[in-house]
Specification:
Layout (H helix, E strand, L loop, with lengths): L3 H27 L6 H27 L17 H28 L3 H26 L2
Helix pairs in contact: 1-2, 1-3, 2-4, 3-4
The structure holds fe (ii) ion (2 copies).
One fe (ii) ion binds next to helix 2 and helix 4.
Length: 139
């Protein structure tokens, strides 16, 4: 039986996955300008990856008898490309520390399935963080 704290952490994770799904998708749609051309495709594919994370975490939470939130964390679109990517990089850092916490917590509760799920997602978030860091270096 998962603890209330673990279920709450999973809902925190869902809220931020929903946030970045919309955030990256809207940044992809709204960004205009030649310099952002390569970035647009990147934002689109990362948005889709985040949506899959939200779905996988919600499925796990429902299995553990929790109720997945429908409310995203505050969404930031940004006025300039640099502003967008700086925020996105920070949001990936937030994900990384939250997911490390969830992995530890689920291990403590002998929930190896949740730990395994978040290890896989963590790997994606580290890649996203690396992508945004790389993009920022060129700005
Ligand atoms: Fe994600
Ligand atoms: Fe991510």
């Amino acid at each position: 039986m998962a603890s209330k704290e673990l279920l709450e952490l999973l809902n925190k994770a869902i809220a931020r996955e929903l946030q970045v799904t919309i955030q990256y998708m809207w940044q992809h749609v709204l960004w205009k300008g030649v310099e952002g051309f390569a970035v647009k495709d990147e934002l689109k594919s990362i948005a889709i990856a985040e949506m899959k994370h939200a779905e996988a975490i919600a499925e796990r939470l429902a299995y553990l008898d929790g109720t997945p939130t429908v409310k995203p964390d505050p969404i930031f679109v940004g006025g300039s490309l640099k502003e967008m990517i700086e925020k996105d990089k920070k949001d990936e850092e937030t994900a990384i520390s939250l997911y490390e916490k969830i992995i530890k917590k689920s291990q403590n509760e002998d929930d190896s399935t949740t730990a395994r799920l978040f290890r896989k997602i963590l790997q994606d978030e580290e890649e996203h963080h690396d992508t945004f860091s790389g993009l920022l270096e060129g700005m």
